[in-house]
Design brief:
Elements (H helix, E strand, L loop, with lengths): L8 E3 L6 E3 L19 H6 L6 H18 L6 E3 L2 E4 L2 H7 L4 H6 L5 H4 L7 H22 L1 H26 L17 H16 L4 H20 L5 H18 L7 H23 L5
Antiparallel strand pairs: 1-2, 3-4
Helix pairs in contact: 2-3, 2-6, 6-7, 6-8, 7-8, 7-10, 7-11, 8-9, 8-10, 9-10
The structure holds zinc ion.
């Protein structure tokens, strides 16, 4: 199953050129340890994203089912909102917003909320976007940097919308209010779009950049037209993804420390969900 390759050659995970599995450095792009301790070809079988799209898809589906099952009597149906888990169960698994973050000190929910969804249409819509965008970002940035961008966008998006919820929560202008309670992968989706826009501006491909910009604009406007959309999370997610992408620079090859950072991001996210469940206190 998990067999290490000790001889022969593999494709460099950064540039795709053939390198020896034991090579210290890629002869073409200079990436250190291109054979990744012999696991390079195994990871490559999972696709450019090293299986991240599947992790997100199944993680979100499992958590959505869990939020439904923990409080089946609380499930609501209203109009477009089909199979909506109760507020109690989304808070249990780590929904974010001004109430959890500032009211109950559950600051780590800025990581967990991007894995939770508020109804059937919400999760289907978001997963379709992720399956469209994440492979493209993985192709340009590599799997590890995609994970970092995805996580940074979640943190920035939910931090902005929770803070806006605290500061402007009572504003008479409803679209300024921010979120008391918020969840969903769209902050991260906007982060992926931000990364694609940055790629275009950095000189990678103006076609990709231009397309991402129009997607982001359409989705952002869509957010103002539809009810109950967290526009601050969209804006913060876009800015967070853009800033992370700029810092990571898509025109430079992915490095081993990016992979370590990506593993830390995934571990911290898993911990944030565990912490949410274990620290809950319902009155
Ligand atoms: Zn290389």
């Amino acid at each position: 199953m998990l067999r290490r390759q000790k001889t022969g050659s593999v494709l460099c995970p950064s540039c795709g050129k053939l390198v020896g599995v034991q090579d210290k450095e890629c002869w073409n792009c200079g990436r250190r340890n291109p054979g990744m301790w012999g696991f390079s070809s195994l990871l490559r079988k999972l696709g450019n994203d090293f299986g991240f799209v599947s992790i997100v898809t199944w993680g979100c589906v499992a958590l959505y089912v869990a939020t439904l099952l923990t409080d089946p009597h609380g499930i609501r149906m209203s109009g477009m909102s089909i199979l909506e888990p109760s507020s109690r169960s989304v808070v249990l698994f780590g929904a974010s917003g001004a109430i959890p973050v500032f009211g109950y000190g559950r600051w780590w929910t800025v990581l967990s909320a991007t894995w939770l969804h508020g109804n059937l249409l919400h999760i289907v819509f978001n997963l379709l976007w992720i399956r469209q965008l994440a492979p493209a970002v993985s192709e340009l940035y590599g799997a590890s940097r995609t994970v970092i961008i995805y996580t940074a966008a979640s943190i920035a998006g939910f931090l902005l919308s929770s803070t806006a919820g605290l500061v402007f929560g009572a504003s008479p202008i409803f679209f300024l209010r921010g979120a008391a309670l918020t969840l969903g992968a769209s902050a991260s989706i906007f982060g992926l779009l931000g990364a694609l826009v940055l790629y275009g501006r950095r000189g990678g491909s103006s076609h990709i950049g231009g397309q991402a910009k129009s997607y982001a604009l359409i989705l952002f406007i869509f957010g103002f037209v539809m009810p109950n959309i967290d526009n601050y999370a969209h804006l913060g997610g876009f800015l967070g993804g853009y800033a992370a992408a700029r810092w990571l620079d898509p025109l430079r090859p992915e490095r081993v420390d990016h992979m370590i950072a990506a593993i830390i991001c995934l571990a911290a996210t898993a911990l944030s969900i565990i912490a949410s469940v274990y620290t809950i206190r319902f009155a």
